[in-house]
Amino acid sequence: MAAAEPVSRHVSLIRGSIGERFVAIYVIVGHRVALVDTGFADHPRSAIQPALSALGLSLQDIDLVLTTHGHADHMGGHAAVVSASAARVRIHAGDSGRLHARSVMSDDEFARVFRRLGLDERAAERERMLVEVTGGTVAVGRPLRDGDRIDLGAGVALEVVETPGHTAGSVTFLVHPDGTALAGDAIQGLGGGSGLPLYEDPDAYRASLVRLAGLDVAQVGLGHAFRSAHVDGSAIVAGARLGPLLDESARFVDIAAQTAAAVVAMRRPSMTDAVEQFLRRLPPPYATPGADLETLGGASLHAAWLHLERALDDAGGAYRAEGAPVPR
Ligand SMILES: [Zn+2]
Question: pLDDT tens across 260-283, in order?
Answer without folding.
Answer: 999 998 888 788 889 999 999 999
